[in-house]
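Data's thin. Show one?
=====
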Amino acid sequence: MFLMAVLFSAETFAFAKSKIYTEIALDDNTAPQIQLNFNVSLFALHCDYVSVDVWDVLGTNKQNVTKNVEKWQTDENGIRKTFSGRNRETREVRYEEHEETLAELHENGVHVTELDEPGHFAEFMAEHEMSMVNFYAPWCMWCQRLHPTWEKFAEEIEDEEMPVGVANVDCVKHLELCRKEGIQAFPSLRWYEAGKFMEPGYKSDRTVAALVSFAKRKLELNEKFKDWSTKDKTKTKSHYRELYNTPENPGCQVSGTLMVNRVPGNFHIEAKSKNHNLNAAMTNLTHRVNHLSFGAQGKNPSRQVKRALKQVPESLQQFTPLDNTMYPTKNFHEAFHHYIKVVSTHLNLGSGSNRYPTLYQFLQQSQIVQYDVNNVPEARFSYDLSPMSVVVEKSGRKWYDYLTSLSAIIGGTFTTLGLIDAVLYKVFKPKKL
C-alpha cells in the first residue's frame, strides 16, 4: 500500500506540473509595420536641438519626427523639470533681407564690437553693465544672413543711446571661450548683465525691430530692479535679476512611438535645428535608454499578457534588454550606436492561446563610433527583424493519460500483491504428513 501511495503521489505531481519549451518557426506575421516605443534621456543636449529621424532600406527618410513624440527638459541628472512639448513643430525664425551689403553698412562706421583677441570678452563685460553678444561661426549660413541685421541693430542701439553693448565672438577663433560658455549652436544670441548670461537665450525673430524690442524690454526690467532695490535696502539689484533669470535645463528626455516598416532600418537622435548650425565641437550624446521595445504590448502589456508571462522563464523574456542602461561618451566627436535583432515571439500556453498578441524579443550590441570633426554625432538605433519566430509552448499530461496511469498503478499494485500472496502461500503452506 505504501508503494501504491508513492506512485499515486508521483503521478499526481507530474499531472499538475507543466513544462515550458520553445520551437523555432518561420514568422507568419504579415503586418507591414511594427510599433517602436522609446524613451531616451540626453544629458548635455537641449530639447531645442533634439531631432528624431527615421530611415530604412525601402527609402523612408523622415526628418525631425514630431508625431507622438514628447520632450521634457531635464537637469544634469536626467530628472524631468520643464515640459517642452508634444507633437510640436519647431517654429522657423523670420529673417530680414537688406539691400545693403555688410561692407556698405560699414561705410558710416562699424557699430558691432568684434571681440577678436584673448581677454577682450572679459574686458567688454567689465565695460558694459548690459550687453548682447552674437556667438557665430564664419561658415554658418544663418550667421551670414544675420550679420547685416546685427550691424543695423547695433547702429539702432547707438542712435537711441541705449546703454547696451553689442558684440560678436567668432567661435572658430575662440573655441575655448565658446566651450566655456556652452555654445551648442550658431548663431547663439545671449543677453549679459554684469558679466553674467541671463537665461534663456534669444529665440525670437532675427529682425532689427524684434532685437530692438527685446533690448528695450530688458532695459525696462532693469529699471524695475533699481526701483525695487531702492525701496527694499536689504536686497540688491542682482537679487531681483536672479528672480527673473530662468536657467534652461541642459538635458532633454525624448519619448514616444514610431510606426516603422518591417525591414532593416534605424531611428536616430541627432542634434539638429531649423534655425541654427550645430557646433560639432560641443555636441555630447551621452544618453540613458529609459525604455526601448517593439510592438503595442512592449510599452503597456495587458493584464492577460502579464499573467501569461508569469509562466515563462526570465531567459525567454528579453523584451527590454536596453532599459535603464547608461551610455556615456567622455570625448567629443563620438557617440554610441546600438544594433538590434528583433525576433517575433508567439505564446501558445494552452486553451485560448490564439488570443495572445505577438510579442517581440530582441538582442542588442552597442559600441562607440568615432565621427569626423566636422560631422555632428548621433545616437543611432539600427534594427533588423528576423524571418524566424520563437513559439513558446506549455506541455502537460492529459486527464485521460493521468486516469490511465492511476488505473495501471492500482491494477499493477493488486496484481503484484496477489503474486506475492501466492508465493508466500506456496512457501509457508503446511506440508501433509
Q: What stands out?
A: The longest strand covers residues 378-395. The two ends are 37 Å apart (CA to CA). The mean pLDDT is 85. The chain has ten helices and 20 strands.
